[in-house]
Design a protein that fits this description.
This protein is an alpha/beta fold and 72 residues long. The protein is built from three helices and four strands. The model has no long low-confidence stretch (mean pLDDT 93).
Length: 72
């Protein structure tokens, strides 16, 4: 079974955490990059804050097995 991960600022993803999504708090570019590279093989969906998505836009192809969703 695939897991769902959220990456971004806590205040943007706290609602997802209440629904059971594992949230990785990442406020800086370095933290966002570390969260992405540290994703496990069991991750199937990553929910990204807009800032995290901008940081990772060139990295999406590196994990074609992971779906990404960018919050509006």
């Amino acid at each position: 079974m695939s897991t769902i991960i959220g990456i971004g600022a806590t205040h943007e993803l706290e609602g997802f955490a209440l629904a059971g999504v594992s949230v990785i708090t990442a406020a800086t570019d370095a933290e966002v990059a570390a969260a992405w590279t540290g994703l496990g093989d069991d991750v199937g969906l990553v929910i990204l804050s807009p800032a995290a998505a901008r940081q990772l836009r060139h990295e999406f192809d590196s994990r074609q097995d992971v779906l990404t969703l960018v919050m509006p």
